[in-house]
Amino acid sequence: MFRNLNLGALGFKAPFHEAVELAIKGGFQGIDIDIFEIENILQTQSANDIKETLKRKNLKMGGWGLPVNFRKDDETFQKDLDKLPHQAKIASSLGCFRVFTWLMPFSDTLPYKENFDLHVSRLREIAKILEDYGCALGLEFVGPKTSWARGKYEFIHTIDGVLKLRKAMKNENVGLLLDCWHWYTSHATIDQIRQLKSNDVVYVHVNDAPSGIPVDEQVDSIRRLPGETGVINIVGFLNALKEIGYNGPVTPEPFDKSLREMSIEKAVKKTGDAIKKVWAQAKI
Fold first, then answer.
1. At what angle do helices 234-244 and 264-281 cross, to 10 degrees?
2. pTM of this prediction?
3. In the chain, domain spans
4. Cα–Cα distance measured from residue 15 to residue 23, given in angstroms and rounded to the nearest whole number
5. DSSP per residue over 74-118, as a string?
6. pLDDT digits (tens, 9 = 90+) for 55-90
């Protein structure tokens, strides 16, 4: 496992080369890429230039967000899907093979079975393209009851739900984006992580939860830095991932308003310090 930076997960945005320097200052070991930005950079630089930059800085490639909107109409989905082979080829040339996205935990229009079948159909096409370029797809479930209970029709919001979806898809390059926030709010356990295999987990998020709020009343957009409150057992979470052999990025995603009010450098430094602290506690 390695400590990974995604500026967007902190509420910030910066050009790739600036983000690289921020990652170093924050003590991170890896960094995510924005595939659209990388497409533009490659008009003036080569993939080898980018890889050499990261090599000199001793940074690993984290992952990239899936650029296909599979939640909307057929035309939008197909338009995005048509661009995916080129984007996956670019990411593959950089050695960035982990792709991630999230699942809406409810629908106001589709009952569970119809929504499940639609996800199987669309995500299967996406995963097949990614597989052609050696990429794996991590699916993030959204765990809080305050999120999934507000829609007309409930949808996937647990580890088991994602694994059931993967089984129906029959794509071997699909797994979990496991976020300790959603793990906690879905009432999952450390034993559930221990029952997974290393390739069941594609990508990981870490954060903490505000104290004094019952788990079923936690709100997705209000979180804390990793280890800040101790509400979430992050050390146990990380140790379970270590036990199953997960070796990928671990990215802070605190959704903390106070962090966004800082300068970008201070926010990255504070986040880096927080994840290094839980890293040491977990003896990674």
1. 70
2. 0.96
3. 2-281
4. 12
5. HHHHHHHHHHHHHHHHHHHHHT--EEEEE--SEESSS-HHHHHHH
6. 999 999 999 999 999 999 999 999 999 999 999 999
CA dihedral sign of residues 135, 253, 193, 164: negative
Res. 23 pLDDT band, cuts 50 70 90 = very high
230-263, pLDDT tens digit by residue? 999 999 999 999 999 999 999 999 999 999 999 9
pLDDT at 62: 98
CB proximity list for 88: less than 8 A, separation 6 or greater: 99, 129, 130, 132, 133, 135
Separation between Cα atoms, residue 144 and residue 183, nearest integer Å: 9
Contact 9, 33 (CB under 8 A): no
- Locate 209 and state its tokens: 């939860």
- What string of H, E and C letters represents the secondary structure of 177-234? EEEHHHHHHCCCCHHHHHCCCHHHEEEEEECECCCCCCHHHCCCCCCECCCCCCCCCH
What's 2-281's CATH class? alpha beta
CA–CA dist 57, 5 (Å, integer): 14
DSSP assignment, residue 41? Answer: H
Are the C-beta atoms of 132 and 85 separated by less than 8 Å?
yes
Q: Report the half-sphere exposure of 277 (CA within 13 A, side-chain side).
A: 14
> Residue 33: its pLDDT value, please?
97
Spell out a b/e string for 59-87, using b for 16 or more CB atoms within 10 Å of the CB, else e: bbbbbbbbbbebeeeeeebeebbeebeeb
Pairing of β 174-179 and β 136-140: parallel
| Sign of the Cα pseudo-torsion (51, 57, 59, 64, in order) | negative
- Residues 62 and 5: their CA atoms lie apart, in Å, by 8
The answer to whether the beta carbons of residues 173 and 127 sit under 8 Å apart is yes
Which tokens hold the place of 81? 């899907």
